[in-house]
Each structure stands twice: as C-alpha cells, then as structure tokens.
C-alpha cells in the first residue's frame, strides 16, 4: 500500500479555523457528525466504518479519500474500539485535542444512553420466566459468538508453526495456570519481537501478516476480524 | 472506593483491547470475576444485552458492568476507563508516529500478539462454555445448549448471520424450549 504523506502540522483547514466562535462551531459539528453515526450501527464498531467514511470524507470533506484508509488501518491497530479510535483520530486531525474530545464524546454518548436504558429494562424483567428462558438460549449463542471471534482472528494470526504453538501455549497456560490475561497480552507483543529476531537469526523467512489483511475490505468486520 | 476500581480496571483493559469486538470479552470477564462484580453467567447475560445495543461491544459491556455495580456513576467510570486509552494512544500516534503501522518492529509485535490473543479467546470460549452449560456432565440441558451453540456458530460462519439476529433468534428458541 502506497502511503501518502500526511503533513500534520501543515494541515491547512484545521489550523486556519481554530479561532473563537469558529472553533466552537467546528467542535459542535464534529460532535454532531459522530453523534449521528453512533446509534445506527449494531454489532460493533466495524459496521461504522462505511458510515464514518461517508460523513467525514464525502459529506464534510474533513479527510481526503486517499487518507481515510490509513486512518482506519492505524485505528484498527491501536487497542480499543475501532469506531472510537477513528473518531478520536479524525477529531484530532481537524481540531487537535478539543476536536478529539468532541468526536469521542459524540461517538460514545448515544450508545452509552441506549445501553443504560437496556440495562435498566433488563434488570426489571430478567426475573420473568419467559425472559429467563430466552436467556438460556442466548447464553449458548454467546459462547458461539466468542468462538467465532477466535476463529476469525485465528485465521489472521496462525500463519506458521511458531504462531500455532504460541496460540496453543497461551490457551494451555491460561487453562492450567490462571495467569492474568492482561499480563499475557503485554507479553504477546514482546513474544512477537523475540520470535521474529530468532527466525531471522536462523535465516528463516518470516511471514508477518496474513495476505488478506493488506487489502482493506469493509464487509463483515464486526467481530475481531484481524488486528 | 468502587468507582475508582471500576475506572482503573477498565483503563487497564482498554490498553490491551486488541482484536476488537468479542475478542476482548474473555479479558473483561476475568477482571469482572476476580473483582467479584458479577458471576460468569451474569456477565454472559450482560454481553448479550450489550450485543443488542448499537456500538462497540467492549465499551457496552463495560457500561453494563459499571451500571450494575455502582449505578450511573459506575457506568460513567467504567466507560471512561475503556475510552481514555483510545484517546491517549490515538492522539500520540496521530501527533508523532503516524507511520507506525508500517514499522517492521510494530509488525513483529503484532505477529506475536495475534496468536496470543487467539489463544486467549479459545480459552475464553471454553471457560464461557463450561460456565453456561454448553460443556459439562451430560444432560438434556447440556445437549440443547450444545446444539444451540453449534447452530449459532454455523449461522455466523456460513450463513454470515449478523450477531444481533443470532442473539434474537437464540432467545426465541430459548423461549420455545424453556418458556
């Protein structure tokens, strides 16, 4: 992928209009743009990508079409929800830290309120026998959703024997030793670097990424579809 | 103080939330259990409700846990915890390291990170399966759960059914069988 050069500090539009009333209007616009996107997407952040693109690139012109793929690629690599990451990224790009905050609050607020509402509703009705019956079914499906996420990431993660061993070893360690997963994830990054160096020392070729992840595709990214 | 605990716990989770979507659920579950905020089965219900709401499921689950544990302030604390890492890291990257995703060592790090996260999710799936009766001593209930699990997974993998509909349909099946 050819990376277009992005001159952050020479970005003309953002720096020009950061003045007084215009700044507040811009922040308000950022907030509203991301606020609109929030409530309409079910199933997770990846579904928001086409919507974010349509709003930010086509409708508002805040980001150029050739740059938006970069925004999403970077946002996907950073921990956290891709929707939130993309929003913060675009917000920062247009209006620095205040823009990032406006975008973040805009994208989080509607779903926050909806979740609270559902939560309250759930706590009222969850003792009802029909609701309990429904959830007995839903629990099994939820296990499937988690398994599905594992399969999707597994396809981009297990590329060779080293990665297969790493995946199985992790499962075994967690199952028998109950270590804190947070520590294990932190170790994961270091493991990657270590493995690559070892392979290079041994003169083995290292395939770092699953080919498909190099092309950006939009469909079906709603559950952990590659990091 | 529980609000602070909620905030810091989800802050840490937020910093390691690689993988998106349901990939982070096992990590959140482990933290929620170890703090005694919910049982695994209660948390499974929380995920189901969170999955029925628009927005990223990791954040939604955090909000649910926070709300159930400490009301509205709790929800705000946990939501803030989940999103602050995004704020910090994205701004840092956007300001200084925008080419970072092409860096060879970053790619190497992800090369190791992805299989470990895969292993984590597999463990999570097993753990959730055991806690929710999909795996266990044989009984009518276990068999039904196992069939539902298999059907849901098939629907996700081959029918490409959206998770929202998987949840709703499994709920209807649950009512039909147990209601």
Rg of chain B is 18 Å
Q: Which structural class is indicated by helix and strand composition of chain B?
A: mainly alpha
Specify the helix fraction band of chain B. over 70%
Summarize model confidence as the mean pLDDT of chain A: 81
Distance between the termini of chain B: 40 Å
* Major beta sheet summary of chain B: none
* Broad shape of chain A: flat
Q: Rg of chain A, please?
A: 21 Å
How many helices of chain A? The count is: 8
Could you tell me the number of beta strands of chain A? 0
Poorly predicted tracts of residues of chain B: none
Order of helical and strand elements of chain A: HHHHHHHH
Mean pLDDT score of chain B, rounded? 90
Task: Note poorly predicted spans of chain A.
Answer: 213-223
Give the oligomeric state. Answer: heterodimer
Strand content of chain A: under 5%
Give the helices and strands, then pairings.
The complex is a heterodimer of chains A (227) and B (179).
Chain A: H1 12-16, H2 20-37, H3 48-59, H4 65-77, H5 82-125, H6 129-157, H7 161-177, H8 181-201
Helix pairs in contact in A: 2-5, 3-5, 4-5
Chain B: H1 2-15, H2 25-34, H3 40-51, H4 57-96, H5 104-131, H6 140-159, H7 163-178
Helix pairs in contact in B: 1-4, 3-4
